[in-house]
Design goal:
This protein folds into two domains: about 5-30 and about 280-410, Lyase, Ornithine Decarboxylase, Chain A, domain 1, CATH 2.40.37; about 35-275, Alpha-Beta Barrel (TIM Barrel). By secondary structure, it is α/β, with parallel strands linked by helices. The longest helix is centred in the middle third of the chain and has 19 residues, at about 210-225. Strands 4, 14, 15, 16, 17, 18, 19, 20 and 21 form a nine-stranded mixed β-sheet that branches. The protein contains twelve helices and 21 strands. Bound molecules: ligand LLP. Ligand LLP binds near residues 102 and 274.
Length: about 425
């Protein structure tokens, strides 16, 4: 059963009515289903069983410590992009030997922290980063395990802001330069070449570009092996999409089969960096309708969540389903833009939605488990929402609601200095 579902006219998450959760914890609130998290992880594990990949969950999708700890306990590794994310995975009890470090702008300090933690691999994104890593590792008496993040120049056919594998994107090392840079890496004393990496974009609804990217990488791996450079692992990044609305998605088993055929006999460990597909549909943003503003041209449902809580609609015009927590069949349905209280016209969560609602009602903004809370801000001096994990009929606060004191602390301490 879907973790978020109606029983009669009430929307539930696992075995709890969302109305009860709102009464207990207030709104806006991010609510997650633990069973949905586990289920998404298990689907990967089942589909890819015969490849036995190392799943390195992309922490940026949702970096809540309790969620990281849940995945760590399931045996997951992590893909991090900052020293902050490294600190999070270590605090959550992750095994550093299952951590890969991506990102175009790793600082010296971040390199030192990751070297000292003995992570599995640095996904290096430029020649200058490679040279710096070699120097930094030498200085502290370490050898850095590296992959090059290769830009395979394939079109991921997704939103341009979340497409990363084209020549025009800032990510990775140009395909044609990779062989030469691997050879330079081989000659550097404080680096140890362990793999190859790519990540072509996010919310992919077709696996074909991922398979094209893999084929490009395999071509390169053959050239590397002729040049005497053998790799231990191949990291194909993340990117598999989820259903926000009516998207058809790649079949995981068919994708796994395509990978299996290509990797057979190569002796390469497969690494994947899924983010959204592990958490996206496991969470909702729960919000309360403050005002119905009915007009001649347009109706607005002003809710207590806003673009600071969920940026995706404003930033990418992303669609998130919006469901009433109580279905009111006797009420007339109206067409509304669901908007927040922030002073920006781009502060909307959904446009032109058909809803039968009245003031005080609760709404669930769906599929908010990924890139929801992690992209939240304090704009308009709004405190960050509480986050609650549900398991069966049990709730657990996994991030308490930010208080104004916390929000103002770093500025108050500077007043009158
Ligand atoms: N690996 C790397 C190196 C990445 O940059 C990303 C995401 C992932 C893995 C995970 O990709 P996923 O499996 O989640 O698609 N804020 C945007 C998404 C940005 C994705 C950035 N990179 C959104 O809300 O749609």
């Amino acid at each position: 059963m879907n973790a978020i579902h109606y029983r009669e006219d009430d929307l539930y998450i696992e075995d709890l009515p969302l109305s009860e959760i709102a009464a207990q914890f207030g709104t806006p609130a991010y609510i997650y289903s633990e069973a949905a998290l586990t289920g998404a992880f298990e689907s990967y594990r089942a589909a890819f069983a015969n490849l036995d990949p190392l799943l390195c969950y992309a922490v940026k999708a949702n970096s809540n410590l309790s969620i990281l700890r849940h995945f760590a306990r399931l045996g997951c590794g992590f893909d991090i992009v900052s020293g902050g994310e490294l600190a999070r995975v270590l605090a959550a009890g992750a095994d550093a030997r299952k951590v890969v470090f991506s990102g175009v702008g790793k600082s010296e300090q971040e390199m030192i922290e990751a070297l000292n933690a003995d992570i599995k691999c640095f996904n290096v994104e430029s020649l200058n980063e490679l040279l710096k890593l070699n120097t930094v590792a030498g200085r502290i008496g370490k050898t850095a395990p590296i992959s090059l993040r290769v830009n395979p120049d394939v079109d991921a056919q997704t939103h341009p802001y979340i497409s990363t594998g084209l020549k025009d994107n800032k990510f990775g090392i140009a395909y044609d330069a990779a062989l030469d840079i691997y050879q330079q890496a081989k000659s550097l004393p404080h680096l140890h070449i362990v793999g190859i990496d790519c990540h072509i974009g996010s919310q992919l609804t077709d696996a074909a570009p991922l398979i094209d990217a893999l084929d490009r990488l395999l071509g390169l791996i053959d050239q590397l092996s002729s040049a005497g450079i053998a790799l231990h692992h191949l990291d194909i990044g993340g990117g598999l999409g989820i259903r926000y609305r009516d998207e058809t998605l790649p079949d995981l088993s068919a994708f796994a089969q395509a990978l299996s055929e290509r990797l057979q006999g190569r002796g390469l460990q497969l690494v994947m960096e899924p983010g959204r597909s592990l958490v996206g549909n496991a969470g909702i943003l729960l919000t309360r309708l403050e005002y119905l503003k009915l007009g001649e041209h347009k109706n607005f449902a002003v809710v207590d969540a806003a673009m600071n809580d969920l940026m995706r609609p404003s930033l990418y015009s992303a669609y998130h389903g919006i469901l009433p927590v109580t279905r009111r069949e006797h009420l007339a349905t109206i067409t509304v833009d669901v908007v927040g209280p922030i002073c920006e016209s781009s502060d909307f969560l959904g446009k032109d939605r058909q809803l039968a609602i009245m003031e005080g009602d609760l709404l669930a903004v769906m599929s908010c488990g990924a890139y929801g809370s992690t992209m939240a801000s304090n704009y308009n001096t709004r405190t960050r929402a509480i986050e609650v994990m549900v398991s069966g009929d049990q709730t657990r606060v996994i991030r308490s609601r930010e208080t104004l004191d916390e929000l103002l602390a770093n500025e108050k301490s500077c007043l009158d200095k």
